[in-house]
């Protein structure tokens, strides 16, 4: 509202492969979708940090999966969560269009595991998919920096590809995550 440029770093959304996937999604008529982010990052390595171990994959991996499903299938209006907050989380997401998607995430899936991506399904087009782990490349972080710099300069055209990834998007995702986390905590 104050005119301050903001961007949420949802890394996948700054890749060419994901941007092509989202373009394909607009030409498809999906009946549902799935999103997955599984790794062993919370077992060992640099991502095994206290806040990740305490809050689990929903807070760490969830924003990326939820964002991409919402971007591909439309705004999410409700969430049902199941699983164990610190280890494995499953979400059933209802989109404004009535389409339903499922998201699965874990940072404890094994040290040799790295699976991340989204698939949309429709009777006419079959599957429209993106492998988000493979999508990350050397250009991704440069794209993040250049589009944010363009937003700060007020260069609307150069900042356009990530314009929807502003603070409003972050709040939208946080509301969904908060609702899911509340459900998981009340069930335990």
N to C succession of SSEs: HEHHHEEEEEHHHH
| Rg measurement, Å | 16 Å
Task: Give the strand tally.
Answer: 6
Which structural class do you get from the secondary structure elements? alpha+beta
The major pleated sheet works out as: 6 strands, mixed
User: Which percent range describes the beta-strand content?
Assistant: 25-35%
Summarize model confidence as the mean pLDDT.
Answer: 95
| Helical proportion, percent range | 40-55%
Query: What overall form do the CA principal axes indicate?
Result: globular
Would you identify the regions where 5 or more consecutive residues have pLDDT less than 50? none
Query: Order of strands in the sheet with the most strands?
Result: 2-3-4-1-5-6
- Total helical segments: 8
Distance between the termini: 39 Å
Oligomer: single chain
What does it look like?
Helix content is 40%, strand content 25%. It is built from eight helices and six strands. The protein has helices at 16-26, 50-55, 57-60, 62-73, 132-135, 140-153, 156-159, 167-187, and strands spanning 32-39, 76-84, 88-95, 100-106, 114-122, 126-131. A hairpin with a 3-residue loop joins strand 2 and strand 3 (88-95).
Task: Give a short overview.
The protein has 188 residues and is an alpha+beta fold. It has eight helices and six strands. The protein has helices at 16-26, 50-55, 57-60, 62-73, 132-135, 140-153, 156-159, 167-187, and strands spanning 32-39, 76-84, 88-95, 100-106, 114-122, 126-131.
């Amino acid at each position: 509202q104050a005119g301050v440029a903001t961007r949420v770093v949802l890394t996948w959304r700054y890749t060419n492969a994901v941007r092509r996937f989202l373009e394909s999604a607009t030409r498809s008529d999906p009946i549902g979708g799935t999103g997955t982010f599984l790794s062993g990052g919370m077992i060992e390595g640099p991502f095994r940090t206290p806040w990740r171990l305490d809050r689990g994959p929903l807070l760490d991996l969830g924003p990326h999966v939820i964002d991409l499903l919402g971007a591909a299938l439309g705004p999410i209006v409700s969430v049902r969560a199941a699983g164990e907050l610190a280890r494995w989380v499953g979400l059933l997401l209802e989109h404004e269009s009535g389409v339903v998607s499922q998201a699965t995430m874990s940072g404890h899936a094994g040290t040799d595991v790295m699976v991340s991506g989204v698939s949309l399904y429709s009777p006419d087009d079959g599957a429209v998919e993106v492998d988000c782990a493979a999508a990350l490349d050397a250009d991704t972080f440069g794209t993040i920096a250049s589009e944010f710099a363009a937003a700060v300069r007020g260069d609307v055209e150069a900042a356009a590809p990530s314009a929807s990834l502003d603070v409003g998007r972050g709040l939208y995702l946080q509301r969904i995550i908060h609702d899911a986390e509340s459900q998981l905590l009340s069930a335990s």
